[in-house]
Specification:
This protein has 189 residues and is α/β, with parallel strands linked by helices. The protein is built from seven helices and nine strands, in the order αβαβααβββββαββαα. Helices cover 47% and strands 22% of the residues.
Length: 189
């Protein structure tokens, strides 16, 4: 039995169309997944960038004080700071700042220069981090500041998304003005 060349041409074209459709569907599906993953990230600023943006449009400031060697800091970056609700809330209500507690570059703020101070063995601390944390240098630590750069609270230690969201709401919704964090944490689900 001989197959006609029409059959091969027809089959070959159908096969190409089918493969093209699969590639198109896969591209659309995975393209959306990749775009969704890219859009799920906190917009991090330097201290200077956040201050400049704040002058144009005041918002509260969220400061993630970390070090490059801190394992729990890296875990928060991978787990907590990629959680879609955390990302959306932080980006909407705060200027989120990443502050390396051991960075060596000076930071000027409010007519003051904050510097790196050597503590020995090649280590040290940045005086802005020291000031924000009241000298309690544990990592990670989050600092919440109001629109006047006044501290709302310091929150030391690793946080899962649900715990961080409670803190974000506490600060962004001004609950701290009428309620202590301990009371708020107990009553808010």
């Amino acid at each position: 039995m001989q197959l006609s060349s029409k059959f091969f041409i027809s089959f070959s074209m159908k096969n190409r169309v089918f493969r093209s459709m699969i590639i198109l569907v896969a591209t659309l599906f995975f393209g959306d997944v990749l775009l969704a993953q890219e859009s799920v990230s906190v917009k991090w600023y330097t201290w200077e960038e956040a201050v400049a943006l704040h002058k144009k449009r005041p918002k509260k400031i969220f400061v993630d004080v970390y070090t490059h060697w801190c394992g729990w800091c890296k875990r928060m970056d991978k787990v907590t700071f990629t959680h879609p609700e955390v990302v959306a809330y932080l980006n909407k209500h705060f200027y989120a700042v990443k502050l390396d507690a051991e960075q060596r570059e000076d930071i000027r703020f409010n007519d003051q220069t904050f510097k790196f101070v050597e503590t020995g063995n090649g280590r040290g601390v940045h005086t802005l981090a020291y000031s924000l944390l009241d000298g309690r240098m544990g990592y990670p630590s989050m600092v919440y500041l109001n629109e006047k750069f006044e501290r709302i609270m310091i929150s030391p230690g690793y946080k899962e998304a649900a715990d961080l969201l409670k803190e974000l709401h506490f600060a962004a919704e001004d609950a701290y003005k009428t309620t202590s964090w301990e009371e708020y944490r107990k009553r808010k689900p």
